[in-house]
């Protein structure tokens, strides 16, 4: 059941002063573990998932008869492995990251195994993090080629005014809720699907902004800005949280209750880089507003601040991967705002809430439950995958 609810508040959200205070109801929001120990905890957690790696597909399988984590989440394991080396100034994961990103590039054109632009960009984003950590020009080129491919599926001004795209066999709208649809990114490359969503567009913003930062080429900056404007105008609700999907043929929306951490998280990441590249405060103000709302949202956490999304103990699910992406987004806001103390204290505290929750329920020294409220549970590939980002991000944010 889709609803057509109109959100007009994006402009207001930008100018509201944000409360960056740390809620005192958050549980256990500081941590005194030294740097070396944080590095070791995170690398041990990575090592614990590696036996599940299928070296012929680059994907992570399940254990004890339950499924693995599938394609998009597998790409994200390589992302966090590269981020781990970048933050720890090591090359522990380099060979596995580079070999598997090359392997998967060879298996699936433009990193797109199933016909989804977001899938392609999860892997391209992993290639960007790997480039940042290790400097491989080959992997950078894979990211650029994926960006060029996905750019076909960004609605242009000409396509909006003609109501058609050479890549779609359905008619397209120029506006929804009176706002331009230009810059929205189609979820899928297939001709008969006019769906756009925040994650595909947020990934495109992030990829564009990183490529702008790396290459200095303004075509990437322009692309990031155009797509950021689409999210700003159409995809942020009254509470400052990102919505999910919007149909490019008839403006129908995903239910207003579809609030997932990763939509806000990916936008926070992309805007952090975009603000840094452009030195335009508009983007940092918007980022800070979304971040301050998202870390305090009752959509996915209680008063204790511990994220409850995707906590199933019995099956892999997308939600468990969402919260990892959210925490990763906070890392980029941290990285790009070294002098913004209030923001950094908030990020530090929020990450430590998740970090301490995980460390309280670790099993056998290295396995983490998908339910961050615990109790401890034996290894599952999805629970382990989700824990990797908070454990690695906490290296930087403490
Ligand atoms: C894949 O390689 C990694 C690293 O060498 C290893 O830990 C893992 O057991 C291998 N997986 C398989 C299925 O061979
Ligand atoms: C919009 O199109 C989708 C299919 O693309 C359909 O499922 C939905 O019912 C349509 N909504 C409206 C309001 O027409
Ligand atoms: C900053 O970005 C906003 C939004 O795109 C734009 O309106 C404004 O002109 C930009 N400012 C500068 C100094 O470029
Ligand atoms: C950009 O980010 C870097 C860290 O990556 C930071 O040192 C610098 O101050 C930022 N610059 C601006 C203009 O935001
Ligand atoms: C805080 O987190 C640590 C793990 O880092 C845990 O050992 C400790 O018991 C937690 N304290 C409280 C009061 O929950
Ligand atoms: C994990 O598995 C071991 C061996 O089967 C068992 O002894 C232990 O109780 C399990 N731990 C949890 C938290 O389920």
Outline the structure in words.
Residues 1-17 form the signal peptide. Keywords: Signal. It holds the Pfam family Glyco_hydro_76. This is Endo-1,6-alpha-mannosidase. By secondary structure, the protein is mainly α. The protein has helices spanning 10-15, 35-49, 70-88, 94-107, 117-134, 137-150, 157-162, 198-215, 218-234, 261-278, 281-294, 318-336, 341-360, 381-397; strands at 53-54, 59-60, 175-176, 179-180, 195-197, 245-247. The strands form three sheets. The chain has a two-stranded antiparallel ribbon. It has a two-stranded antiparallel sheet with strand order 3-4. Strands 5-6 form a two-stranded antiparallel ribbon. Strand 1 and strand 2 form a beta hairpin. Residues 363, 376-378 line the site of one 2-acetamido-2-deoxy-beta-D-glucopyranose. One 2-acetamido-2-deoxy-beta-D-glucopyranose binds at residues 276, 279, 335-336, 338.
Short descriptors:
single chain; 6-hairpin_glycosidase_sf; 398 residues; two-stranded antiparallel ribbon; 54% helix; globular; binds 2-acetamido-2-deoxy-beta-D-glucopyranose; mainly alpha
Concise synopsis of the structure shown:
Pfam families: Glyco_hydro_76 (PF03663). Helix 2 packs antiparallel against helix 14 (381-397), helix 6 crosses helix 8 (198-215) and helix 9 crosses helix 10 (261-278). The protein has helices at residues 10-15, 35-49, 70-88, 94-107, 117-134, 137-150, 157-162, 198-215, 218-234, 261-278, 281-294, 318-336, 341-360, 381-397, and strands at residues 53-54, 59-60, 175-176, 179-180, 195-197, 245-247.
